[in-house]
Design a protein that fits this description.
- The protein has about 500 residues and is mostly beta strands.
- Helix content is about 5%, strand content about 45%.
- It is globular, with a radius of gyration of 22 Å.
- About 50% of the residues are buried.
Length: about 500
């Protein structure tokens, strides 16, 4: 019996490694595009900003698109970082920026009709690949169904829309639309997802208004199961704010000012929430607030209008670890037509592919903040205020991207054996440009663990050492002060070592 269990464990572990590598290789690049902005017809500073993270350093460009964006935004790209389709909650646009075939008429009702320029619901839409499919995508979305009138925003259902990218000459088409998968009175937005412990399926979660009930859906290759429900934590009234799973899928957090911050442990195998932690947060005269979790899943940040607060998720007493890591510095974002500018406060937050957390400003501005070292506990996390100058005015828009790269957890007894989405095991590391004059970007496969970058000269002397964040794909390096010659780059993650030669000219 013991021998059989050991053999099964070996097979299970091996299949999980294959599945995790498959997730990483098959999906790298799909979350690298961020879109925001509005009123392109009015000209600059109206228009849209595209932030492309594919080459490591965020590349910002200006565009004039038909689609405007408010809070609601979801998109997905192919493995090379090319945008496939995107939404503002009102309709879906394809890669040509035109309305996708059958992509109009999302979220039917008075609210969508009133906000055709983009829904104002944080995390109001979420896109995930259908498990084991290379061409079908599921989009979960919702509206404000008690609009207009009534006290507090509510959704009366969670919708599912299905997109098949093999249709319409590869531009994709909507095959089913506005299918009700949960019918109840729900808190608007905050649609969050994480991979099941089998590394293939997905959990999608939302919250019921005036309760402590969470609804969960299990997304499998053959069916969408549920909704399942669990009552845990405080009773929440109507709200906005944000909800995120940690990148490792082991924590789930939910934040809004009129309900405070809730943090739970999450079991990816059973979707069970446990060990509820509640933190009351101060009201700072603003409702456009947010929250995000660091790439190492060890630190949580609340962006609360005038302050950013950090919590150590590894602490035995998480509420006691609260630390103020930023206070609004009075900067005003000035742009044509508004010489007095608008305050760059702290609004919605999201973890980006470059390993930084980006924070909106709570107003229509042309700036974002960043947390440059979010895994660092203490002021060393470096909240860099108004550090990103956008190409257009935007209204607190951030994409709702789950961790597409999360793989298998062998501690789950239902973890799949011998199932992969892509069994390409070729790990790679490359530099752009190479040869280099000193500044270059390393690109590598996403890994769930942190690592260390070491650079050696031809004599074997270490000349550079730096941290590599988990779930990151890129690392910017500056060796401009070093002598010209050949250098060896090593990225170490446990027993795994990836190497690359760099030529500095």
């Amino acid at each position: 019996m013991f021998g059989c269990m050991s053999a099964r464990k070996i097979i299970l572990t091996y299949s999980c490694v294959l599945l995790q590598l498959g997730n990483i290789c098959a999906q790298q690049g799909i979350n690298n595009n961020w879109l925001m902005g509005y009123q392109s017809a009015a000209g600059y500073p109206g228009g849209q900003t595209l932030i492309n993270f594919y080459n490591g350093t965020p590349a910002l460009s200006y565009d004039s698109l038909e689609m405007d964006f408010n809070h609601t935004h979801a998109n997905i790209s192919d493995v090379s970082g090319n945008m496939l389709f995107y939404t503002n909650g009102y309709y879906i646009a394809d890669a040509t920026n035109d309305t996708m075939q059958n992509g109009s008429g999302l979220n039917p009702g008075a609210y969508a009709n009133a906000f055709s320029d983009g829904l104002g619901i944080p995390q109001g839409a979420l896109i995930i690949p259908k498990p084991l499919s290379s061409s079908v995508y599921y989009m979960f979305h919702g509206s404000v169904d008690n609009y207009p009138g009534g006290i507090g925003s509510r959704a009366y259902q969670l919708y599912l829309t299905t997109i098949d990218m093999t249709l319409n000459a590869g531009l994709g088409a909507v095959t089913t639309k506005n299918v009700q998968v949960i019918i109840d009175t729900l808190n608007c937005g905050k649609i969050a997802a994480t991979r099941h412990a089998n590394g293939r399926d997905w959990w999608v979660m939302v919250h019921r208004v005036n309760s402590n009930k969470f609804y969960k859906l299990l997304i499998t290759p053959t069916a969408i199961l549920g909704p399942y429900s669990q009552n845990i934590g405080i009773t929440r009234q109507w709200d906005a704010g944000q909800a995120w799973f940690s990148p490792d899928g082991k924590k789930y957090a939910y934040y809004y000012v009129n309900g405070g911050l809730d943090i739970f442990d999450f079991d990816r195998c059973t979707a069970t929430l446990s060990n509820a932690v509640h933190v009351n947060m101060p009201f700072e005269n603003g409702y456009n607030v947010g929250m995000a979790i660091s790439p190492g899943s060890n630190a949580l940040y609340v962006s609360n209008t005038y302050h950013v607060y950090q919590f150590d998720l590894t602490a035995s007493n998480i509420p006691a670890s609260q630390l103020t890591v930023a206070t609004y510095d009075s900067f005003m974002s000035v742009f044509p037509g508004f010489p007095s500018g608008f305050a760059t406060l702290f609004g919605l937050s999201a973890l980006a592919p470059d390993g930084k957390i980006y924070i909106t400003t709570g107003n229509g501005t042309m700036h974002m903040h960043t947390i440059d070292n979010p895994d660092v506990i203490g002021l060393g996390c470096n909240v860099n205020q108004h550090s990103v100058q956008l190409q257009s005015v935007y209204f607190n828009t951030l994409p709702n991207h789950p961790n597409y790269f999360l793989g298998c957890d062998t501690s789950c007894p239902t973890c799949l054996v011998g199932v992969t989405e892509n069994e390409n095991e070729n790990r790679h590391i490359r530099a752009m440009p190479n040869p280099t004059t000193g500044n270059f970007t390393l690109q590598f496969n996403v890994q769930s663990v942190s690592g260390e970058l070491e650079i050696f000269d031809v004599m074997g002397n270490m000349v550079w050492r730096d941290y590599v964040a988990p779930w990151s794909q890129y690392k910017r390096v500056d060796i401009s002060k070093l002598a010209n010659g050949i250098y060896l780059c090593k990225i170490l993650r446990g027993d795994n070592v990836e190497t690359l030669k760099i030529i500095k000219e």
